[in-house]
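Progress note, project year one: complex with flavin mononucleotide.
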Amino acid sequence: MPAPNYFARNFDTTPTPTPMEQVQDNRNIATSEEPYCNPRLDPKNYLEGPLSDNAATRLRQMLARPGIIVAPGICDGISARCALEAGFDCLYQSGAATTASRMGQPDLAIATLNDFVEAGNMVASLDPRVPVIADADTGFGGPANVARTVRQYARAGIAGLHIEDQVQTKRCGHLMGKQVVSREEFITRIRAAVLARDEIPGGSDFVIIGRTDSAQVLGMEEAVTRLKLAAAAGADVCFIEGVKSKELLESTVAALAPKPVLVNVISGGLTPSFTSWEAEQMGAKIIIFSLVSCVAMVHGVRTAMKSLKETGTDFSTAKGMDPKAFFEVMGLKDVMTLDAKAGGTAFSQVFAPPFFPPTSSSTSHTEMSNSGVSLSGKEVAKHNSRQSCWIIVHGKAYDVTEFLDDHPGGSKIILKYAGKDATQEYDPIHPPDAITNNLPPEKHLGPVDPDTVEKVEVKITDEEKARQQRMSARPSLDEILNLHDFEAIARQVMPEKAWAYYSSAADDEITIRENHAAYHRIWFRPRILRNVTKVDWSTTILGHHSSMPLYITATALGKLGHPDGELNLTRAAAKHGVIQMIPTLASCSFDEIMDAAQPGQVQFFQLYVNKDRNITKRIVQHAEKRGIKGLFITVDAPQLGRREKDMRMKFEAEDPSEVSKAGSEGVDRSQGAARAISSFIDPGLEWADIDWFKSITKMPLILKGVQCWEDALMAYDAGLAGVVLSNHGGRQLDFARSGIEVLVEVVAKLGEKRGLKFPNEKFQLFVDGGVRRATDVLKAVALGATAVGVGRPFLYAFSSYGPEGVDKALQILHDEFEMNLRLLGAPTIKDVVPDMVDASSISSHGSAVPGDRLYDSNYESMQHARLRDATVKL
Ligand SMILES: Cc1cc2nc3c(=O)[nH]c(=O)nc-3n(C[C@H](O)[C@H](O)[C@H](O)COP(=O)(O)O)c2cc1C
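Model obtained:
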């Protein structure tokens, strides 16, 4: 039986045309006014019943039912496997990424139909029930071309594809100046696709998506008209490329309703980075993230290759993934099961673990992991209490019972995952090796059979959704004028816990405010009529060039604010030629950060000294081997200060029962989130240890956290390379003086006692705390500092705007330096001399200065203890 003609309403019973006749037919159809109508494909028919095992039917069911369809872009077997592993129930085969992956070239439409179909067929076969939507990058051209594309994709098991209106010799979709065909030609393509689908014997549910690229070149109005015509010609879904705003997406959805709309989000592309939740709220039905895998691949593979080249090993980038673990992600278990069912023996060796699980509870864990026998998820699930708490991270089980009270984020979050897979919660905050480094080997219980582990669903809270909405309402970076602005935005868009950790300081938070206020007691004495046509604010720090007298100081737990954590700083530092100090307690692993650096990029390392000096020695020597140019030993934190904002957040995150129970057992909770990450720090560190440091490294040694001239003098006499006059951003001893105040007395006293002049090449003075403007830096430089450390502003910059935020923050500082050097009458940094400032009031803590409105309005006052139940009335 020939396929009925759904364009004609009166179903056609003429014989099936020959291919040549078909072309002729399509031309006639292209001019037909009759809208397409196929009662069988009415969305109402797909509302009820279980989800089908046929991927195309399932895609129609998903389209007809509530909820947005989220389809991550994949380009090969590995990316498809990872998407399925993450739990996605629809995949998008990206044209550009598939071309790149198969041909090693960008998307210029040179891959053939067979290339695409073969790739799509392989992906669709991994889990044949999961719909794969394809970018039919050969779905342009004449109707015959389009029809053949549809037939071949449908046969290959693909659930749907999009047909677009770009010209056959299209430019890469991501280059500007796309060219599109006429409306008529576009609609001819859609009709050809629909006809080809309807002629598939037995009736196919294959989904045809009409895509227009015309918005960019012909405007939104034309784009919407084209999609309306495509819908009338039988397209099941409308795909609008290049919607530049929320409003445009919403109006497109309204104009095309009830046709479902697909939106394409590419980080950094024309469409803003809507989350899937935001897109759903705007009415989109499908959201694709076309380049998610190929971009991640470039980052991951690049890092691994660079690291292998530099270190001669792939140990750190493997992150513990052995060959078996890799094959397991790629479906080894299915292959083994099939082999066994068929009576094969090829995998009997590897197969042993799942088939012969440990039967005796007396089997030692070490035995288990050593023998390669996996634990079962059920066994791990039994250890789900405070008395015995096991968790799974990256496929391996750990006994964390004794670590519960030491965990920086509190025990509740671990107990929530007791007996379960905690990887999703763990990954964003911790360096990959944190768990293996912090737990003794006997607590490493070995691999867990992934098939037996129950998936943990991570729920997005309303609070988190609201935060993401605030995130999407951020002003553009152009509107950010100074470093205070980043703080103001960060405060509104950061997760509460992260904000509390970054912004908190010790006790009554007097010192944190004094750090900034102290700069208000220094005034300039500018000089005039000096040729400042050209000004140069670059300098050298410990002998290394820096584009400004400023470095990014060490701040722990970067991933609390942004998934890329400290890497945001590494990248921006490279771009702007400034030095980054890597913290011991970074969220990214040390090697990850070093691997992300550009060749020749200078980095320092901040060291917390471990009670176990062998660990310290290993860390220091590894840092030196990887090219670190200065070791900053933190000396102001034998115990971490009380950061009450942070502690308050922690108590609120804990079960009240847990808090009181732990309290009665004498667990010290007095130091909030900061406590456990610091419990390894040695309070016994003393001056006598300095010689030991000199014996284990040739890196210049600097003490970070010196707070009076007596200690600065001892550091000089001990032959160190310098000191950072710092009170740890006000996070340690409250009422410690500001670094800038200490600088004035250190310069005076070291001059008096040892005849030193500053800035000094041999013994360099650094200051940090409260620096928010280039004028602050210039005041410190005038008073003798070689350079100044800046901490929180960069954290706030990446927490609110990612890497571009840090880039912008550094650019703002460059601009401020340029202007201020001119206004000071100082062509270079060497011309910024003590006579240019009046610091006579620096140590007078009572002197009044005008309030700093930007800073003060960002400062969030501390809170008193709150009643737990908000409904209790006074
Ligand atoms: C969130 C945060 C984490 C920090 N972590 C460390 C650390 O791990 N080690 C360290 O020596 N200093 C640490 N510091 C102190 C900074 O190195 C620096 O002394 C301080 O941030 C400077 O003040 P500013 O933030 O006002 O610029 C941290 C500061 C903040 C705000």
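The first strand starts at residue 69 and ends at 74.
Residues 501-502, 515, 553-556, 583, 585, 606, 634, 704, 726, 728-729, 731, 768-771, 789-792 surround flavin mononucleotide (CB under 6 Å).
No further modelling is planned for this target in the current period.
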